[in-house]
Amino acid sequence: MSLAAHHQRPSTVVRSIAVLGCLVIVVALVGGLLGHHDGAHAKPELPASWALGAVPFAFLLLAIAVFPLIPAIASWWHSNVSRLAVAATCGVATLVWITATMGAHQAATLTGHAVLDEYIPFIVLLFSLYVISGGIAIRGNLPAHPGTNTAILAIGTVLASAIGTTGASMVLIRFLLSVNKERHKVAHTAVFFIFLVSNCGGLLLPLGDPPLFLGYLKGVPFLWTTSLWQEWLLVNSILLALYFTWDRHEWKAERRKDILRDERARRRISIDGRLNILWLVLIVLVVATVDPSRPLPGTEWKPFTYMRELMMLGLCALSMAFTKDAVRKANEFDFGAIAEVAALFIGIFVTMQVPLLVLKEKGAALGLATPIEYFWATGSLSAILDNAPTYLVFLQTAVSTPIEGAPFVSVGDLGQVSEPLLSAVSLGAVFMGAMTYIGNGPNFMVKAIAEQRGVRMPSFFGYLGWSCLVLLPTLYLASRLFVAAP
Questions:
Q1: Is 3 a member of any domain?
Q2: Contacts of 134 (CB under 8 A, 6+ apart)
Q3: How many domains, in total, are found in the chain?
Q4: pTM (whole model) above 0.85
C-alpha cells in the first residue's frame, strides 16, 4: 500500500461515518415529521438506565475539550468532516439508546424536537447573521492602544443587545483582530470579546441572546429584559475595567519595534458593504415579528412553519448577490467557522436530549426555591449545555415555584412566574453562557475566526480557566448584589 493510500483511507472512513450518521438522523427526522405534531408530546417516562444514555453527550463534550490537545489526533480533529463524524456518531448512539429504552416513536419525537424545533432555527439564525455581517468590512487601522481596544469592546457590548450577540460578534471581531495584528499578545482580547460581545452584552433585549428570544416566544414581554439594565451595566463595566487593566499590562510588555510599527499603520476608518446593514436590520425585524405560533402584527394570519427561516435565508442570498467579492475577501470570509458550529452543535442538540429529560424529570428534586439557587443552577448547566434550552427548562421549573409576596410576570401559556426567579434564570443563562466555548453559539465562531487569523486561542480547559479567574468572581458579586433571596 502506498503512503498516499495509507493517508487517504482514514479520510474515506471518516467521511463514510459522517454521511452514515447524517442519514440515520435524517431517517429519524422523517419519523419526527410524521409524528411531531400528532399530539405525541406526552411527558416521556425516564428509563432507569438514563446514566448510560447520557454517555454520548459526555463523550462529545470530552472530545471537544481533549482531542485538540492530543498531538496524534489534533490535525485530524481540525477537519470539520472529522468533527461531524464524531458528532453524528454520538447522535446516533443517543438515538439507539432512546429507541431501545423508550421506543422508536419517542426517538423520532425527541429528535424531531431537537433538530426541527431547536437546531434548524438556531443554525439558520447564526448562519444568516454570519453571512450578512461577513459582508461588512470595516477598513482602516487604529493604534492598538488599551483604550482603543476597550472602546471597540464597549461598542460591541452595546450592539450585542440591538443586533444580537452573533451579529455584533461577526461585525466587529475581524476588525478588532486587524487592529491588533501588529501585537503579539492578542488571545486575552479575543477571550474578553467572547465574554462581553458574544454573551454578557446581549442581556437587554430578547433579540440579544437566544435564551431571551425563546423566552419572548413563550410570552415574556418584549421590553421586560430592559429592567435588567443595572445587572448589565455592573457586569460589563467590571469586565471592561478588568480588560483595560490587563491589556495595558500586555501592551507595555510588547516589543518596542512592534509598538512603533503599530503606530505607523494608522489608516482612516471606512465601512464597505454598507447595504448589509439594511439586511441586518431586516433580519432583526423578521426575527421579532415572524413567529409561526402567533399571527403577524396587525393581522390574524399566522406564518407557516419555517417562513421565518426562509426569509432569513432569502436575505442571505441578497447579501451574497449585492456584496462585492472584494469586500468578503478583505474580511477573509469563508464558511469554515459556521461549518464548525454546525458540525458540532448537531451532535450537541441531539445528545443533550437525555440530560434535558433528566433535568425535567428530576428538576423538582433539586429543591430549588430561591433566586440565588436558580441563578447558579441555570448558569452552571448553561455553561455545559447550550444556554437556550437550559433557560426554557428552568423557566418552566420557576413557574411551579412561586415566591409569596413577589411580583409576577405573565408568560403566555406557561402562566405566571415570580419576577425574581425570571431575573435569576435570565441572568444565569446569558452571563454564564460565556463560561465555556459551547455555552453559546457565537463563542465557537469567534474562536474559529481568531485561530484563522493566527491567534493561539486557549484550549477548552484553558478558556474555562480564564472564565473561573475573571468571569466567575464578577458574576458572584453581581449575584450577591442583585439576585437577592426573598
A1: no
A2: 170, 328, 331, 333
A3: 1
A4: no
